[in-house]
Amino acid sequence: MGRIKTTLIKRTSRKLFRWHKEQFTADFEKDKPVLRDILVFKNKKMRNVVLGYITRLKKMELKNA
User: Fold this and answer.
1) Residues of the chain with pLDDT under 50
2) How far, in Å, CA of 31 to CA of 27, rounded?
């Protein structure tokens, strides 16, 4: 069973993915600087959780395309 993401994480991730879809890839490490340029997070953990969910959305989009 996986971890449950909070509504704030999902909502933020979906908004960022919608607005900047073409800038994100399916690679977590390559997307770190992209997210850092788009939005400033207070802590590293929240940034990584949001980026992980965005990466998951991108992978799902590529799989369904």
Assistant:
1) none
2) 6
